Amino acid sequence: MTRGIGIVAPVGVSSITVSNGTGGLNLLTPSPREVWRAAAVGSSNIDIDLGANVSIDTVFLGFTNATPDATWSVATMTNSSGAGLSVVAGTRALRVPGPIGQRQHGYLRLDAPISTRYLRLTVTQMGSGAPLQAGILLVGLTAERPYEYRAGRVALDLSKRTELVDGGFGINPAAIVSSYRFTLSGLTDEQVEDLWQIVMTVGESAPLLIVEGHDTLRFSHLHYGLFQRLEPYEREEPEDTRWGLSIRDWG
Predict the structure, then answer these.
(1) Which CATH class is domain 7-144?
(2) How do strand 5-10 and strand 208-211 relate by DSSP bridges?
């Protein structure tokens, strides 16, 4: 597991093909509420064409209803028909531990980047639950950067409340989402330029994935959403730049 902050800007996906079910293209829309639904409990393939050979090391299959024993694996291919299948991550549990609510995330970071154009995810929903559904498929290359330990989350309650004359409250309930603020530190000039390219590509309107730096990965460490506040970086001395950023989770 990463010790620094992992910043994953998605690479472009040229096309996606699912072996069964409906709404395969919904995996590529930014909203996790637009989902792909498998046709039945069991195994499904998700084939991805990145359009050209690119370097990647991270796959995120988010906002799923995976059962506790659901599994997935990842392989490369030499064409979109499944030729030259080569497994890069064998069968493993799909769910990241510690889910909050009913949604589950699948997250995989390879030990080293690979270069490929075609990927196949094989996902298997087990048990007597509903067929698998998923809202987000994100593939990218993680930029891992050191950070200061003052980083932390805040819960954002989007509900509206009105104080009533009798001392009570009128509540219009809405989602409770999270935000995560962190300060990268000790950045070299090259790392600043790499991060600058990411910031200038996604801005505050395109989604990305932020992974908190912990020894053991948990559901709450994964933040899929939009940069919330793009502060200026501070170059304190050569090879030592600080940059404070925050992400608002997509609920």
Answers:
(1) mainly beta
(2) antiparallel
